[in-house]
Amino acid sequence: MTTDLTRSTAAALADLLTQGSISAREVAQAHLDRTAEVDAAVHSYLHVDTEGALSTADEVDRRRAAGESLHALAGVPIAVKDVIATRGLPTTCGSRILQGWVPPYDATLVTRLRRAGMPILGKTNMDEFAMGSSTEHSAYGPSRNPWDLDRIPGGSGGGSSSAVASFQAPLAIGTDTGGSIRQPAAVTGTVGTKPTYGGVSRYGLVALASSLDQAGPCTRTVLDAALLHEVIGGHDPMDSTSIDAPVPPLVEAARRADVSGLRVGIVRELTGEGFQAGVQTRFEQAVQHLVDAGAEVVEVSCPSFTYALAAYYLILPSEASSNLAKFDAMRYGLRVAPSGIPDPSAEQVMAATRDAGFGDEVKRRIILGTYALSSGYYDAYYGSAQKVRRLIADDFTRAFEAADVLVSPTAPTTAFRFGDKLDDPMAMYLNDIATIPANLAGIPGISVPSGLADEDGLPAGFQILAPAMRDDRLYAVGAALEARLAAAWGGAMLDRAPALAGSGAAVGPTRTKEA
Fold first, then answer.
1. Lowest mean pLDDT, pick from 249-253, 309-313, 349-353, 421-425
2. Any idea what DSSP says for residue 514?
3. Which of 48, 91, 272, 289 suits a disulfide with 484, CB 3.0-4.6 Å?
4. At what angle do helices 50-65 and 24-42 cross, to 10 degrees?
């Protein structure tokens, strides 16, 4: 049965732990019990670390009892996306080619989680090497959306979003290359932040596209996201792209939640045609909530955004084809001997291994990227895409002269059913149409629940974008909107839990439409 501890926010758990009202072991055990109860249906995790989580929790309890000064989130458990290196725990990237691989080191952000005393519950499911928008491309089977188990939880970080939405973890880490934190947040009714590129260390993240990848928080509230962001953010000399600057006052901005006088820019190219009617309606209502809170709304145009999807799907495959060349069956991971060849060469073993270890979507992008980088086509494809990227960054610069933040729906639709887009790559790629520009420009973005679409009663997301290194604006605007919507809903949207048909297990929130 779901306990109150699993329904509590990270901020509330932190307060209870600090007060001594609960122990870190109780919190970790409650979430592990929750996972044992529902994850067979939701499949958020690829690996659960019961022993490690409880060991960390016990150490936090011991240190707290001894009167030591602890981090505010010490004892608050967290789930980590399986693309992030964790010493002593499997890191498979959702791929057969890394099945069973256990890194000998931690990613920098994992080191920071451990230093804060946050028990790691396990590694969450994902599209293979973060390529996808639904987790249907995971080699280990898809995660499911707690709002409707027949629908996708987003991707590539559907494991992290579904774990948070189904109350298996109060916090999770995701990665966002073209929307893989924000889009899953939108379709599961959770909060997801893509920090400024370089604001959170990428050391220890298995690279998909090095100029685009960024780790960030997956949570149930804006304040929780700010708390987690401050833990993992900051300069890291191990990452050459890390920004050597202080982390903005994120928690302070979330607690203040003040948007009076703030200029909110609606991006003309990211609304209207192509967006589900219910998603668009909830977006417009959310904008009105910000107006009621004292914000000023302006419309901005970013014409180069029209080409963002095409540019992204040349840049990402090109970088992926280079990054994934390291999986060669020689150093680590899967090794397959080609059949019918008694004394195979290294090249033959490599070909057999990559054929067996990579899924169709990974192969598709490697082929596309290799072609785009090939002699005679580099300038026409990859080079041209980088020029478009520059135009998109320039559009953002001009837009932020007219507005302090930019807003749009996070995803064009609510969660679709499994199989609906699996055989149509272009339809799948279009899910990221509103999120991709931020990755191309390196600016921060957050998705906050905007309500439930009338057509299907499923969550929609509201995206907020800010200039680079002004991540604090995301949290100020997101928290203000969250407070207004919570008042309209009569509570947090995720505070409703029905029984999973046929099992009696409370998996996630009901689909009750707000008035």
1. 421-425
2. P
3. 289
4. 160
Q: What is the arithmetic mean of pLDDT over 204-218?
A: 97
Per-position DSSP letters for 405-429, written without gaps between them = EEEEESSSSSPPBTTSSTT-HHHHH
The whole-number pLDDT of residue 491 equals 72
Q: How far apart are CA 265 and CA 283, in angstroms?
A: 13
* CA–CA gap between residue 459 and residue 190 (Å, rounded): 9
The single-letter DSSP state of residue 168 is: S
Q: How many residues does the chain have?
A: 515
| pLDDT for the residue 494 | 67
Spatial contact of 383 and 426, defined as CB atoms under 8 Å apart: no
Cα gap 222→353, rounded to integer Å: 43
What tokens were used for 453? 């679409």
- Token code pair at residue 418: 């499994």
Provide the percentage of residues in the chain whose pLDDT is more than 70.
95
pLDDT for position 115: 98
Residue with tokens 């947040």: 185
The reported pLDDT for the residue numbered 423 is: 85
Residue 294: which pLDDT band, with cuts at 50, 70 and 90? Answer: very high
Among the listed residues 462, 461, 457, 460, the one whose alpha carbon sits nearest the alpha carbon of residue 510: 457
Sign of the C-alpha dihedral, residues 14, 19, 21, 22?
positive
Q: Which secondary structure element, helix H or strand E, spans residue 47, and what is its range?
A: strand 45-48
Q: Cα(216)–Cα(172) distance, rounded to whole angstroms?
A: 9
Task: Please state whether the peptide bond connecting residue 242 to the residue before it is cis, i.e. omega within 30 degrees of 0.
Answer: no
Between CA 13 and CA 73 the distance in angstroms is 8
Mean pLDDT, residues 201-218: 98
Structure-token match 């072609």, residue found: 371
- Give catalytic residues, as residue numbers: 81, 156, 180
Confirm if 24 and 61 have CB atoms less than 8 A apart.
yes
Location of structure tokens 């090939």: 374
Helices in 233-345 by DSSP H: which ranges?
250-256, 277-292, 308-323
Q: CA 34 to CA 492: how far, in whole Å?
A: 20
DSSP 482-497: HHHHHHHHTS-TT---
Sign of CA pseudo-dihedral 368, 373, 379, 385: positive
- State the pLDDT at residue 1: 37
Of 286, 38, 413, nearest to 421 by C-alpha is 413
Which pLDDT band holds residue 514 (cuts at 50, 70, 90)?
Answer: very low
